[in-house]
Structure formats: structure tokens, C-alpha cells
Amino acid sequence: MRTVGLSVPDVVREIITRNRSIHDCMAMDVINYTALAVKIHPEVEKQIGNPIHLNTIVVAIKRYADAFEKDENVVTEPVLKDARLSMTDRIMGMQWTMKDILDQDIAKMLGEAEKALTNSEFFRLGDSFRILADDSDVTRRIFQNFPKENVYSSG
């Protein structure tokens, strides 16, 4: 596909901005320019319609990367200057194997725990499940319904 009037830097810029992961890596300055040039070389030649030397693409990538550095003027905002932030996690996750299911009556334990699960979210994923509880009292009640020996671990 030949695009009339586009230069190599224009095509390189368009390819990079179209691919979000490459664009993000360029913005974070964690990408190898030569490796990227090798990867996009066929597409650049296809869009330009002529053979392009690899070093031309590397230079276009480097110049585009330099444009990111000019745009990184970070302005500090005093909005959170004296704020105190704390984060708590009340996510309880349990996992079991088929052996555990045969050794313990998991269905019975879940049935007993169901009483405490009224204000929680329950997600089943393959051989495990997650209970999301926004109240530490609910989490304690859920744990009380399970046997204490080697059935669950916290972490």
C-alpha cells in the first residue's frame, strides 16, 4: 500500500501510535530502537512503496522518542499535599485440589458459610473461588465456618 506524501518519520510515528504497547514502551523509554526498527521495517516499506534502509527507521524512531522527553513536564499539584492515605484489603481467597474435596466435605462447609455470605461477592474460578467481603466482621464469620486444621491459609 503506497501512501502519497508520507515520509519515513510520518509512517514510523503512525505505526507506533497505532500500537498501544509499543507507544507505552516508547513513553517509558524501555524499548530497543533497533529491534523495533527490524520489527516494523516491512510495514514501513509497504506504506512508503520503496526499499528503506534500516538505519533510516532507527533515526526516525529515535527522533520520535525524543519528542516524548519534551512533553514530560510534570506539574506537581498540591491537592494531596497533607493527605494521609491508607489501604486495607479484606479480600479472602481459598483454593483447593480434588484431593481436598474428597478428604473434606467442601459443599457442607460452603453451605454453612453461606449464612455469612449475604453481603459478599462469590466468584468461582476452576479449582478455586474468591469471596470479596467489604467488612472484616463478615470475613471473620466466613472463616469461623471452616475447620481450623490445614484447610485454609491466609496471606
Q: Which structural class matches the secondary elements?
A: mainly alpha
Give the end-to-end Cα distance, rounded to a whole number of Å: 55 Å
Strand order of the largest sheet: 1-3-2
Number of helices: 7
Query: Describe the biggest sheet?
Result: 3 strands, antiparallel
What percent of residues adopt helix (DSSP H or I)? Answer: 40-55%
Please give the number of β-strands: 3
Mean pLDDT: 72
What fraction of residues sit in β-strands?
Answer: 5-15%
Shape designation: rod-shaped
Global Rg: 28 Å
**SSE order, as H and E?**
HHHHEHHEEH
Ranges with pLDDT <50 over ≥5 residues? none
Textual characterization of the structure:
The chain is mostly helical and 155 residues long. It has seven helices and three strands. The chain has two domains: 8-70; 91-144, no CATH class. It is 49% helix and 10% strand. Helix 1 crosses helix 3 (33-48) and helix 3 crosses helix 4 (54-70).
What's the short story on this structure?
The chain has 155 residues and is mainly alpha-helical.
What distinguishing features does this structure have?
3-stranded antiparallel beta sheet; mainly alpha; 2 domains
Produce the secondary structure layout.
Elements: H1 8-18, H2 20-28, H3 33-48, H4 54-70, E1 91-95, H5 98-103, H6 106-113, E2 121-125, E3 128-132, H7 136-144
Antiparallel strand pairs: 1-3, 2-3
